[in-house]
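Issue: copy button drops trailing tokens. Both records pasted manually instead:
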Amino acid sequence: MNILLGCVLMSLSIIVNAGVGDDVTLDVDASQSSFVVQLAANPTTGFQWKVVKFDKKLFSLLSSHYKKPQTNLIGAGGEMFFTFTLNKGKSYPAKTNIVFKYARSWEADNSTVKNVTVNFVKTPKS
């Protein structure tokens, strides 16, 4: 039973980490007031997501929170949600980037960077 549990936990950690390094593209309706970036996270490992860089003239970071997984497995990863609000009265470019870093605070050299490309789209008025 312990071997089976160990195999399950190992496969979960591989799945959780598989998407960490992938870059993401997000389409955001420029007429909306906010948008959310959702990233796989597992704070039980000591790793945390941090917003490193974004254009503060276009939007602001409103909040961030972690949602734990629906499973009770020890060490299972969940998701981190970052909510950004669009600054009103701005002319939005076709796209911009947000840079996130996934790292442990005590290991400066052991981090993963994720680039999120935000494409601003305009929804036609009906």
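Record 2 (pasted manually too):
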Amino acid sequence: MTFNKQLLTAAFLTVGGFAAISSANAAGSKTGSFQVGMTVISACTLETSENQNINFGEVAGNAAATDNQTSTTALSVMCSEGAPYVINLTPTSTNSTDGTGTMAGPGSDTIAYSLYSDESSTPWGNTSTLELAGNGVSSTGAGATVVKSHPVYASVDGPTDVQVGTYSDTVNVSVLY
């Protein structure tokens, strides 16, 4: 197939002429702009599982004192980078603000325990807010994919001279951010 050079030139001139006529007919032009934006808000996730339960193990039912009975776990928190957050713990048995609770067992027997934020037995309760330091644990997020681990220490407070059986309680965890 051969192209006619004159026909091709005429076609280009015609198209170019239409474009020139279109531009010539424009009365003027205006320009403007717009912004693109977004607000990023803090977000946190808390991971809890059965693997994170505190288990004091087996204790003799005639023990006069179990002050050395301790256990630990860790809470996994992921928060937006730079976002401040607070973790509060509340034993459901007592709704205490200082992290003390009681594990219920057979009959009306209970075993007292305490929750701590460190090995030095600093009570871990639920009185912290973002504005007011209390007895919760404060931290800052490192990013949505970075897990921060917060150890929870627990100890039995007093004797286990109670009925034989399983004793338990539930601790509510809240993350304020």
